[in-house]
Amino acid sequence: MGEESNSLLWIISILLVGYFVLTTWLGKKGAVHSRSMKGFSIAKGKVKPWIVGVSFGASFASANLFLGVPGWAYTYGVSTLWWALGCFGVTWIGLLLFTKKFWRQGQRNGGSLTLPQWLGDRYQSKTLQVIVALLILFNIYYIVGQNVGLATMFETVVGIPYIWGIGIGVGITILYVSLGGAFAQIISDGIQGIIMSVVSVLLFVSLLWTIGGGWNVLGHLHTELSQIDKSLVAPTSDGGPFYSGFAILSIQWLLFSFVLLPHLMNKVLTIEKEEELRTFTLSSGITLFLLSVFSVFAGLAARVLTPGLVSADGAIPAYIMEAFPTIIVALMVTGIISAILSTTDSLYLGITSSIGNDLYKVLVVPLLYKNKNLSEKQLDRKVLRVSKMSLIVIGLLSLYMSIDRPESLALLTQFGISAIISGIIAPISLGYFWKSANKIGAITSVLFGSGCFMFLTGTGIVSHVFQALFFSSIVGFVLMITVSIISGYVVRRDKVMRAEQQAQ
User: Do the record's keywords include Nucleus (predicted)?
Assistant: First the structure.
């Protein structure tokens, strides 16, 4: 066993060195496109739309779909399939609904580079742009989740110390993102998405020899789980995220609105022509299906094959060690590591682009260079420099926050996501369909929607993260509609009064 582990360590090390060389090469290749903020943050028109679509699916997948969600399946059973169903079907429906109008709005005023800028342009409000940029900093929790997932893979499969695994992931990602920006990130994610799709299919096919039963393999798996614990085959699960119909609906709401996250919607802004959106959404849907469904079954199979794991998040690593020979294990581990890095690099790029474009440019530049006539090129160069420097700061901060391993990887990643979605879902969706939506309503919705989520989860009034998101989103919608109507009425009334005074 020790010799096999040693061989696995060497093979994975060689593959990781190859991966490091590839991403560094992509970073250098993308450097030519990253000499401006537009090139660094979205690389518009530089990558084929089908690759951007695969990159979307890969960025969506993350450590959560390959470690956290199978960990839920290991603990709570088949009720976790509600999550897999939502990841593919509900999320893709959300993408289809939002993509075209988001892209069209993003082309106005010279083009948006980030989600906060998109909102700022839509509502003509720099204040809203800054507030949303600050809110996006909550994605640091999502990055921490990816760090923990990566370290768990290294620790479980090859025995690399937890903290070393975090350091490896942070170091590799910061290097190639700082070099190549969005171009390197999207291309590397596209490659990773293809590898991850193959890994997902292999995980499902492997049930034929790990669980057995031939064409009735799923029925056989159901029987095995039922013999362990009847609750593992129930449609809901006591004590877990899927404990009731309302809890499941709340999760579907999260997955529907998930596409609005900054590091995902930035992919839409990468597309150059409107007719390319169809290719983008199709490749996104296929990738979402392959990545979101099959790993759950491996998590269920792990409960049968490797009961008593110390950490449920280690279900997939433990399963592949049982199911495959050393060389295949090494390839699959590399694929899962790719899943983790493909989300991490998107998150780093999204946060740091926002720090430069939406915080530094809007808040700091007017103060530091108030009396200096900076050209557009000089300004862009300074904003780009700040964005790249902030990569190091965010990387070190995420490393520090990752030192203490959380109880549940899936719940950690969902906390930061839900805080952001609670604030932005109403301004984005109402900004599409409702002409009366205005900046006062949008600002109110962002502040109170996210504030409500943090209050509910912080006080424990609603301990279920997804239900807290649902309630907070409703608060955001109600407040935005109410405030927009009232403020719109006040503005119209003032205009009428001024017109009457001028007439007199």
Answer: no
* Residue 453 pLDDT exceeds 70: yes
Q: Is 229 left (phi over 0), alpha (psi -120 to 50) or beta?
A: beta
Q: Residue holding tokens 């790249």?
A: 388
pLDDT digits (tens, 9 = 90+) for 121-161: 999 999 999 999 999 988 888 888 778 877 877 776 667 78
Tell whether 106 is covered by a domain: yes
Q: Which domain holds residue 260?
A: 2-28+50-408
426 part of a folded domain: no
CA distance 278 to 262: 20
Q: How far is CA 425 from CA 87, 158, 421, 433, 451, in A?
A: 18, 41, 6, 13, 14
- Using alpha carbons, list the distances in angstroms from residue 17 to 9, 13, 23, 477: 12, 6, 10, 48
Three-state SS letters, 475-501? HHHHHHHHHHHHHHHHHHHHHHHHHHH
Contacts of 36 (CB under 8 A, 6+ apart): 380, 384
Residue 95: CATH number of its domain:
1.20.1730.10
* Burial (CB count within 10 angstroms: exposed 0-12, middle 13-18, buried 19+), residue 249: middle
Total domain count for the chain? 1
pTM reported for the whole predicted model: 0.85
Q: How many residues does the chain have?
A: 504
